[in-house]
Amino acid sequence: MRTRRTPLLAVTGAALAALALTACNGGDGIKDEGASRSSATTATTAGDKGAATPTADTTKGSGSASGSTSGSASGSTSGSASGSSGSAKGSSSSGSSGSVKGSSGGGSSDPWDPKNRVLCNGSNTKVTAQPVPRPLNHMLITVKNTGSKYCDLTYYPVLRFDEMQWVPQAAEETHPQAVTTLAPGESGYAGVLLSAADGSGEGGTTGHKLTVAFQGKTPNSSGGASATPSLPAKGVYYDSSLKVTYWQQNADDALNW
């Protein structure tokens, strides 16, 4: 049996080559260079990956912020619009309805509203009759509204002393431009010329009782209850010159004619 042998020359040549290479590179030179290069490559690669990763994360973060901003803006706008719409709806329907209901239900204090005006008469006023020193032979009739509504004094008072059978005439020059209207608590006036200052009047007599009648919405129609104001104890002298003014808003207008 033949044994196979490796040529000594080949083995020796390989060993010599290895020893020579080791001597030239300090023993571990090849291995160290390889490790350094590998570490540098790995660090560089890792660094590149690290830079790339934050970039990707930043982009992702920006996307989240964008989404958040968009969502917030959208939600806020939508919510605000919805709230405004709701407020407007509530204001236009509930508010207006409430105002209309309040106006129709509560009534109006407007004195020109027919529902809030009545005729002045003896049932809703207090009437007084007082002779005055000036002008001479004059008397002032005062009517105070004691009711809760505005009342109208139409035309002029119809006067009657005792059982007098005739009706005193009104001084047409005292006709006001508008009906005298009294608010609750206010007063209206009429002046009375009792007798002629120069004595030209006829049938002079003294009256002890006075009845004041009120006219309605048309001349000489009844305006309701009459009044009987008190007269001085000695009575009031009058003659055929007896005349009255139309109802006035001011006492001076009722006397100075």
- Number of contiguous helices: 3
- List the helices and strands in order: HHEEEEEEEEEEEEH
Alpha-beta content class: alpha+beta
Give the percentage of residues in beta strands.
15-25%
Stretches with pLDDT under 50, minimum 5 residues: 1-107
CATH topology of the largest domain: Immunoglobulin-like
Largest sheet: 5 strands, mixed
CATH architecture of the largest domain: Sandwich
Average pLDDT taken over every residue: 72
Distance between the termini: 177 Å
Q: Output the CATH class name of the largest domain.
A: Mainly Beta
Q: How do the strands of the widest beta sheet line up side by side?
A: 2-3-8-12-6
Q: Cα-atom Rg, whole angstroms?
A: 59 Å
Please bin the fraction of helical residues. 25-40%
Global geometry: globular
Overall number of structural domains: 2
Total number of β-strand segments? 12
Task: Report a brief summary of the structure.
This protein is of the alpha+beta class. The protein is 39% helix and 20% strand.
What does this structure look like?
There is one protein chain. This protein has two domains: 95 residues; 139 residues, Immunoglobulin-like, CATH 2.60.40. Helix content is 39%, strand content 20%. The chain is built from three helices and twelve strands, in the order ααββββββββββββα. The strands form four sheets. Strands 2-3-8-12-6 form a five-stranded mixed sheet. A three-stranded mixed sheet has the order 1-4-7, with no helix packed on it. Strands 5-10 form a two-stranded antiparallel sheet.
